[in-house]
Every structure is written in structure tokens, then in C-alpha cells.
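dumping the sequnces here before i forget
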Amino acid sequence: DGGITQSPKYLFRKEGQNVTLSCEQNLNHDAMYWYRQDPGQGLRLIYYSQIVNDFQKGDIAEGYSVSREKKESFPLTVTSAQKNPTAFYLCASSLTAGAGANVLTFGAGSRLTVL
Amino acid sequence: ILNVEQSPQSLHVQEGDSTNFTCSFPSSNFYALHWYRWETAKSPEALFVMTLNGDEKKKGRISATLNTKEGYSYLYIKGSQPEDSATYLCAFNFGNEKLTFGTGTRLTIIP
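..and the predicted 3d for all of it:
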């Protein structure tokens, strides 16, 4: 079955450490997105990529980095520069770029806790 | 920053009853409005994408309407069932690559 796989599901990190969250899709979608969820807030866009080897900052990109070397993969690195990294992270994809009218397909999410 | 408001924040509905909730968004520069259902421990799942004023969409017992001139969308669930328990998210787009999400309405169906 086609879909998006995020790993790990749960991750614990010590302060000062970088950590990378994996996102893989087998839907042949061009665009991929990373969102962050915090209690009482809507999903907020961290980074998005419309095509391989290209990505753009979303609304809260500071302290995060991404790469898009393959169409299927869009890993997110949470760096030590991210002041409040404890959150739930969702990866999504859409068939083509331009989220306007393109349905998003989501992964199941990764919960990161900084100790 | 554009705001998308959803109300109520949560509600409890008796099984078999019908219910509805609201998504409010900026009425200027509208391009698309999305609805997603997010069940606990699962991935958010798309319900509808609406682009035209007056749009009405239906999927089984769930339907949605859109008023772009006044900036709101209603989601209706007819004859609620336990499997309808979820958080319902709406998201607004004004023509770029980004979706702005509301905080969601958490629906609990009481058997």
C-alpha cells in the first residue's frame, strides 16, 4: 500500500544534540512538507520541498534543516539551535507542488522529547 | 499571519445525533479550504478540498459547505457513530504553497 512512513515514532534527545527524523513516501508525490504540532496550536509549517534538490522555509524554520536528495525522502534535522524542540512532528506529501487545492497525505508522526 | 478559527474546541455528542462545527478564515484572497479528520494514533486523513463559493461536498454521513464571501465553512455529521470520534482540522490557502491550519475541533461520540 502506498503511503508515508515516519520514523522513529518516539525519540528522546538530550539538550545540545542534533536529531534527524525520517520521512519516506512511495506515492510518487512531488511535494513534501514538515509540520510541527504543539498543544493548543494548529499545525505549523517548518519546511517544504516542491521538487528534488529544492526546499523552502516555512513559518517556523529556525533551528531546523532539511534535505531532498531523493524524491521519496525528506528528512528533518532538529538542531541544538531549536529552542523548544519537544513537539509532535508530522510529514506530509502532495501530488504536485502548490498546496492550494492539492490534498495532503500525512504520515503517522514522530514525537520528540528533549530531556 | 492569517488566522483560521475553529469552533467549538471540543464537543460531546450522543450516538445517533447529528452535529456540526465551524471553520472561520480570512475572506480576502481565498483559494482553497481543506478539511481533515485525525483519529487518535493515526495519520490525519483528507475529507474535502473546497475551492468555490457555495461548494457543498459529501462523503457518506459527512458533508461540508463553503462561504468564501463571509469566510466560513461548516462540517456536518449526520447520525454520529463512535468511529466519528476524532479531531477535525480545517486549513486555509490563499494561493501559495502553504496551508494555515486551525487548532481543530475534538469530537467525542458517546455510545
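Chain B touches chain A through 27 residues (CB under 8 Å).
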